[in-house]
Each structure stands twice: as C-alpha cells, then as structure tokens.
Amino acid sequence: MSAARATVAVVRSERAPLVDTLHEWVTTVDHKRLGILYIIYALLFLAFGGIEAIIIRIQLIRPHNTFVSPQVFNRMFTMHGTTMIFFAAMPLVFGFANYLVPLMIGARDTAFPRLNAFSFWLTAFGGLLLYFSFLGGNGLYGAGNAPDVGWFAYAPLTSRTFSPGHSTDFWILALLLSGIGSMGTAINIAATVLCMRCPGMTLGKMPLLAWLNFTMAGLVILSMSPLTAAQLMLLVDRYLGGHFFDVQAGGSAVLWMHFFWIFGHPEVYVLAIPAFAFASEIIPVFSRKPIFGYPVMVAATLAIGFISMSVWAHHMFTVGMTSAGNTFFVLSTMAIAVPTGIKIFNWLATIWGGKVQYRTPMLFCVAFLFQFLIAGLTGIMLAAAPFDWQLSGSYFVVAHFHYVIVGGILFTIFGAFYYWFPKMSGRMYNEALGKVHFWLFTAGFHLTFDFMHVPGVLGMPRRIYTYEPGRGWDIWNLVITIGVLFQAVATLVFLGNLLWSKLWGKVAGSDPWDGWTLEWSTASPPPAYNFPSLPEVRSRRPLWDLKHPEDPDWHYE
Amino acid sequence: MRILKSAVPIFCTAAAARANSAGEPLSPTNIFAPASTPADTISGLSLLVLTITGAMFVIVLCLLLWAVVKFREKAGAGPGEPAQVYGSTQVELAWTVIPVLIVTILLLATARAIASIQNAIPPPGAVEVSVIGHQYWWEYHYKKSNVVTANELHVPVSSPVHPTPTFLSLFSADTDHSFWVPRLAGKTDLIPNHPNSMWIDPRETGVYLGQCSQYCGVQHAKMLLRVYVQTRDEFDRWLEQQSGPAAASDSTIEGRRTFESTACVNCHTIRGSTATGTFGPDLTHLMSRETIGAGAALNTPANLRRWIQDPSAFKPGCLMPAMGLSDSQLDAITAYMETLR
Ligand SMILES: [Cu+2]
Ligand SMILES: [Cu+2]
Fold first, then answer.
1. Residue of A nearest to B215 (CA)
2. DSSP states of B123-162 as a string?
3. Tens digits of residue pLDDT in A455-467
4. Is the ipTM of this complex over 0.95?
5. Given this chain, do its domains B29-71+86-241 and B250-337 carry the same CATH topology?
C-alpha cells in the first residue's frame, strides 16, 4: 500500500521528457488538447496576419508612399485576408468550440475524436502550404512569391494566363485542405451536440453556446462544400484544360463569384454565431441573470443561419444582375437584420436589472454590443443596393467588415479568452493587464475602423497600393494607420498576459466566476475524462440549481 | 462618449459633405456631392437610410449606455443575486415587429431607387459609348462615329429640358474591372464575357474623377478615370476633331519612321499610319489628353519621354514594356508623339 503510493509520488515529481510531451500533443485525440492546439495555431497566424496588416497600413500612411512595391502590397492584402479568415478566425472559433462544447454538455469527449485530430492536422497543413508559397510560389523560377489574387480570388485573375507560377496553386490547395478539415470538425461538433449530451440535457436545456455552435457547424457543412467544389473546378481549369471560369473559352467569371459568395456570406455567420455564443455565456454570468428569452435566442440563431444561406449576391450588386434579382437580395439581406436585432435587444435585456461586474471578459462583450450595433447598421446601408453601388469595393466596405470581424467577433473572442483562460490553464489571468489590453485595443480599433468609413464615402477603392493626393483621403489614412499601432501594442499586452499568467498566475480553482454551466463543475484544467462521474441536469443552469436549492431554475423552465 | 465620438464621422460625413460641396469641396470623388441623376437618386436614398439607421443607432445606444451604467454592481450593495428574469413575450414581440416595419419601409424605398436607375431607357438624344476595360487602362468607342480613345471620357452636359444622357456599355478584354465615378453614378463592373451597362447625365460641365474599383492586377491602383463634361457644342467639336486621322507633319518624319519600325505598332493604333495594334491605347490624338497611363502622369513632354523610355517608372508592372530605345530614338518618337493632336 505505502509502496504503491510512493511510486505514484515519484512518477508525479518526474517531468516527462520533452519528446514524450510533444509526442502526446501531436498524437492526441482529446478534445481539450485539440482545442488548445487550434487556438495556439490560430494565434500564430493572427500574428502573421497582423504583420501583413501593419505593412499594408504603413504603405498607405500617405499618398505615393513607396514602402513596398505594388507586387508586395497585393500579396500582403491577399495573404492578410486569407490568413485572418481561414487560419486565424476559423481555428479560433473551432478551438473554443472543441474545448467547450463537450464540457458544457457534460460529455467526456466529442463524438469522433479521431476525425477531430485529422481535421485539425489538415487545417494546420493547409496553413503551412499557404505560407510555403512565400518560398515556393514561383517554383523553379527562383524568387519567392505569394498569392496576389485577393482573398476572394475572382476569375479570371486566377487563370494561368494572369497567374502564372504556383502561388495561386498554393492558395487553392491551402483552402481545399483546410476546407475539408473544417467540414470534418463541423460534422464532429454537430454529432457531438446531437448524440453526446449528458442525462437530462434535452435540446431545450442545452447552454446557448451549444445551440449556436451546432448552427455554426450546420452552416460550415453547407457553405464549405461549394467553396471546396469551386477550388477543385479551378484546379481543373488550371491544369486539366477545364473551362468553368475560363472566359476566353465561354466560361463564366460570374459563376466563380456565386460559388465564392455562397460560401463567403454564410462564412460571416460561421464566425459571428460562435461570437454570439461567447456573448450569450459571458453577459449573463457577469450580469448575474439568466439569458433573456432563451427560446427566442435559439429561434433567432436558426433564422440567421437559414436566411444567411440566401443573401450571398449582396456581394454582387455591382456585377449587373437584373433589377428583380437585386431587389430579391435586398429583401433577404435586410430580413436578416430582424433576428440580429432581436439578439442585441435580448443581450441588452439580460444586462437590464442585473448587477453588472465589469471584469475584462464583460468589458469586451459590452464593447462588442456597441460595435456590433454599428456594424449591423452599416450592413443595412450596404444592403440598400443603390447605396452599395457607391460603397461596394470601397474603404467603407473594408471598414464595415472589420467592424463585424474585429469589433464584433474578435472582441468576443478576446472576452472568451479571458473568461475561459482560468478553466483551460488552471490559472487566473492578470486583471490589470487585461484592462490595459481592453482600453488600448478599443482605442486603436476605433481610431482605425471608425475613420476608415470616411475615405470610402469619399471615393477611395480598396486594394490600391497607393493613391493620389488631393482626394481628401490623406488625413484619414494617417489616422487609420496610427490606430493600428495601438492595436498592435494591445495585442502584445494580451499575448504577454496569457504567457505570464500561464506560468505565474494565481491558481484559479474550478469556478472563479461563480458560473452556472457544467464546465465550472469540474477541475481547472479538467482531467482527461472531463467529469469523474457524468453529471445529470434538470435545467439550463445546473450549477445555479446546485447553488440555490431553494430556488432552482427548473421551477420556471 | 468614446462611442459617440467615434460614430460622428460615420453618420455625419453625409451632412458635412453636403454643406461643404458649396465651398471648397471635401473631395472631388465624394458620393454625397452628386452631379448626375443616378448619383442623385442614390444620394437621396442614402440619406434616407442614414437617417433611419442613425435614429436606430441613437435609440439603442441610449438604452445600452443607460443599462451598462445604471446596472453596474455598486460598491456596498448586498451579496444577493438580482431578480432572475427569464424573458417576456410582449417585449420580445415588440422588438420583432418594429424592426420588421422599418425594414419594409427601407425595402420599398430601395426597390424604387433600383428600378428608376436600372430600368431607364435611352432617349433619342442619348450618346452611346462602349467602355472596354483593359489591365490598367480604359478604351472608349463612340457608337455612330468612328471615334476611339482612351482613359479620358468626354460626354455632353445634360439638362432636364434637353436630356442628353450618356449610356455606357461595359466590356472587359481581360480581368474584372469596375467603372466608378462617384459624383456621376454608382459603380458597375466590367466582366469578360458578361456585358453590362450604366448611364450618366451630368448637369454641370467640368472634370469628374474616379477610378477602377474592382481589383484587376498589379496596377489596379493606377487605373484612374477622368470624365470631361462639355457643352453640347464643345462636345460635338471634340467628336469631330477625334474622328479625323492623325495630324501629319513633315518635321517629325524621322520620329514617325522610328515609331513605325519598332514594336510600338503591334500594340498601338495611329490612324493614318501603319500602326494598327489594339493591345494598348489608341494614340491617334494622344496630345488631346491631359494625362498618360490612365492618369499615372500628366501628359507633359518630359513625362511622355520618360514613359516611352520606361513605363514602369510610373506604373511598375504595367503591360507596356520598356523598349531599350536610344536617346536619339526617344527624342524622335517623343517629338512625333507631340504632333498627335
Ligand atoms: Cu455577405
Ligand atoms: Cu482595377
């Protein structure tokens, strides 16, 4: 007996050699480890994409600047867009979904752990391929290169006539692979939500985060397939003499646009819905109230998912559709404002009458509410097709979608980082540094993206490596670039905080926020099997029921 | 406060731009300084949309600010949890129905604007021009006359009494482009194998600026647009002058020979000479243009010489090669070019 105990102690105190640890991480099928791998991978690519953004902004700080050549500039915005969407935002969202969904529905792992690992490594390989293009893009021709066709890669710019060499091939293959990876992960998440819920957890008692990620997974399956198909068609065009997008031989450039945007618009919601999920978990806990109107929130999410499949051509108002076609897409796009509005009001109502604690995660979520409101309203402007004929392809659009993706999505992701960091690492982050990050980033965000709307209204197109003086654009571009500096510093503070806290932060305990969902009922970090014994739930807030046996939720639901 | 301040530029640019357009213009490419019916219609619709979204913004902003300030956890408050409220069907119904009504209004207004711009029919006096987008420059063909020119579009001024709008048919010779002159109309793409059209009816003479707004390759940034709006008489004279062949001048015969004996002729047309290429801009009346290289440089003798010597000095990556000409060849060709009025 005592001998056995001694051996255990010895094993504990000896740290496993690095190779073994690495081997464990590379071969892991644990959803929590894969989640963390996704997140670390995404942070790496967030840094790459950020550096590209900085290069873009330095070049545009004044008219006729010559910081980089036009060729390099075009590679930078292509790589920035592709990286941020496919290799930063998507993996972040998948990472959190992977980590949180099983824990929040009381499961021991996802439905298909091996598929999970496979999907992660496919995505990871895709990102590496994309970046290998810096070295190998021109193949044997010598100098390094990277894709420069823009992140939506309109035909026929991607044909071999206009894109010789291999940079475009790397772009295609990277998206093809990561697309298949994304579909695998999506299937896994959907199956997990459907089949792995703990006893008592009916669909109507799932945390909103599970519902929202389920919707997200559905959207990924539906929207990634056309993109993946289109990449294959493009490869056929480039190497097997196909003519899908080959306009010289009767192919259609517009066909590519349809394929791309029928992926591209739902993609916005693939990223936004998990962001909504974070907000829907964080806002209630820090307001000390349950989410307002749970059934309506679920319905609004499903409605958004459904409608978002029918709005893609609002990205194509300028390609010359008929007036009837344009009007239809105005209708469907504006319709999506209704369920989105409902969500904003429900979050507002959740705060209303609460006792709001402004810890860092909540700060990010409150800023998200403001910013997402503005992003939604500029979205309505863009949905009014004639207004879009002016704004489309201008810096106004760039400002709008950064408002969505940074001001909306990235802000809640930052919130999610701070909120679940104690669970993932077992340590508390540094609250003061968290607040510095928040205020610096918010200041930078507004300097950059508020003022970016203006040059768009004044006629500045996107994707230009330089511009003429005398158009009234100079001052705005200067301010935009200054804002980037703030965001960069803030991001460094964020990364520093994570690292420092992981090593030296206070031990967090299993439930630092007095939370209500199942992940807070197990240790931080959770053991490999998540829960010593499978939990049983009777309401949407099982831990509330535990903590308030006199007034449990299941009295009301 | 921070948020309020930040919202100001977004929602007030419109108003500011309007006010400003009387004096020193805020920008020559301001979408809120329209000078043609399609741009007017859009600007009107946009102001309606801005007003409605602006009102929504202010209302929700106030509610949000109130909530985040009023309901913050106050120091010294008891430890208990606030009242647990799960939802309310009435309020949720209200904030579903009201947005539906607002969206319906916006939809109707938008549909009307779409129809009035897109379904316009050319009146008998309309000028028709085919616009062909090329990698980094614009080609114009005036229908009903044999005028072919590049980059600088000339159109007659239009008035409600004598409407002479210009209808543009849009084509592309290579990749996608987009024709955008903000003060005259919204943009429309030029897509290979997919003809498009748009129209403008500028009501004041002057030069209107714009540029390509669909990424088309390396020099997308320097694919600028200039639209010269002229009185009917000026426009007719311009058309008359452009339809003639190139001016012949004996003093530059050497330059012309050099030009005709280099690869220039494979890419450029000069009517009345042996040059019939169509890959690059028509140079027959080159000197009637104020800029070269789609607005990349002013059309001065020095710039012209520099351009012919090495176009990438102005537009690195553009599709005209440097020809490695000697100084004397350059002088001769430039002198010849300068006679092409
Ligand atoms: Cu969209
Ligand atoms: Cu272009």
1. A463
2. -TT-EEEEEEEETTEEEEEETTS--EEESEEEEE---SSS
3. 999 999 999 999 9
4. no
5. yes
